[in-house]
Amino acid sequence: MKRKIICFVLLVFLVAMLAIPAAAAGSASLTVSDTTPYRGDTFTVTVNLSGVGAWDAGSLEVKYGSGLELTGAKSLAADVTITENLGQGRVIFFSMKGAVTVNGKLLSLTFKVKSGASFESNKIDVSLQINGETVKASKSVTVTCSHKYSAWASASADKHSRKCSICGKVDTQAHTYDNPCDVDCNDCGAARITEHSFAEEWVSDETGHWHICVHCGEKSTLEEHVPGAPAGEYTDQICTVCQEILIPALGHQHSYDGTYKTDGTFHWTKCLGCGEETEKVTHVYESDCDESCDTCGYQRAVVHKASDSWTCDGVKHWKSCTDCGLRLEENDHVWDGGIVTLEPTGTSKGKILYRCGLCHTEKIEDIPALQLTEALPWWLWMLIGAASGAAIVLGIQLVIGLTKSSHKGRYSG
């Protein structure tokens, strides 16, 4: 039994020892910066190591498709230097400090896509010789056309196509429209026949009403509103078709008959319908002495302020209200007996001064010139009278005397 156990342990140890060199060889991988480059593009391939033991030198051989060109190589590991022979696709790498272990990026290769490369896959193979072991890796890139397409052209009722002028590739797609009502393809302009699907609901504004297409929002033909019953105090006027409110309810409209209510300061009126009273407004007068309100006709008692002095003309005198100028206490003048300021004579008029006893207004009137009977003093009139009487007597006597003489001559003859 012990012999069997010992044999089994030895077998396991032997297998482990045989496995160590295989693990030491490790592996390699490639990372490509662009797996679908265009003609003329440049891209890089990074060579990565993993699980490779310590080494101080190695080499890399790279093979690649005919559409590619190797243009450069670069070390990516510290203290690792390379020499290259790009024409043969070979790179030598070695350590300047003795044995090194690299787990990760070792170096990068730069490729350029040839201008005439075919639009196909190009495989890149690398083979590394390290510590007498060979480590390989591969990656593919596909040369892609930087298409220069012609304009889209309708190919059928439901598709359009375009062709690349470089590679001749034909791209075909379905027509595209903004919505079910759009009549022109957005890409190629292909026309189609379509009809709007208008919603049943009305849309309206103050000008009219219409329907809206459920797909594109297009309006149907605008129709004018059909007015219903006129708006009332509490009912709107609406369109009988779309129910748009044309005229809102008017609300209660106050009605007044021009009759005012008044007090000593204000006037106001009352609505005949609801009885609501308007705001009280102060009476309006033209002046402090105006008795009647200009708005409502309210009559107020006015006490005029009489002036201190009289105003007069040749007939009357009065006092004026200091506010409005109204004549107060107006009466005819009351003249006194007058004072003669210039005595009249037989040849000239005299003057007499009268004064009103209330306002003291004065007036002067003419006294007519004296008549002859008024111009001579009384004593002179007596002398004249006496002389006139004597003359009359003398005349009578003369007449009598002449008469008697006439009779005597008649009788004597």
List the SSEs and their pairings:
Elements: H1 2-25, E1 27-32, E2 42-50, E3 57-64, E4 68-75, E5 80-85, E6 90-95, E7 104-113, E8 121-130, E9 133-142, E10 153-154, E11 159-163, E12 170-174, E13 203-204, E14 209-210, E15 237-238, E16 245-247, E17 261-262, E18 266-268, E19 281-282, E20 311-312, E21 316-320, E22 327-332, E23 339-342, E24 350-355, E25 362-367, H2 372-375, H3 378-412
Antiparallel strand pairs: 1-2, 2-7, 3-6, 3-8, 4-7, 5-6, 8-9, 10-11, 11-12, 13-14, 15-16, 17-18, 18-19, 20-21, 21-22, 23-24, 24-25
What would your notes on this structure say?
- This protein is an alpha+beta fold.
- It has five domains: about 25-140, Immunoglobulin-like (Sandwich), CATH 2.60.40; about 145-195, no CATH class; about 205-255, no CATH class; about 255-300, no CATH class; about 335-380, no CATH class.
- Helices cover about 15% and strands about 30% of the residues.
- Strands 5-6-3-8-9 form a five-stranded antiparallel sheet, with no helix packed on it. Strands 1-2-7-4 form a four-stranded antiparallel sheet, with no helix packed on it.
- A hairpin with a 3-residue loop joins strand 20 (about 310) and strand 21 (about 315-320).
- The N and C termini lie far apart (about 255 Å).
- The relative contact order is 0.06.
- Residues about 1-25 and about 410-413 have low confidence and may be disordered.
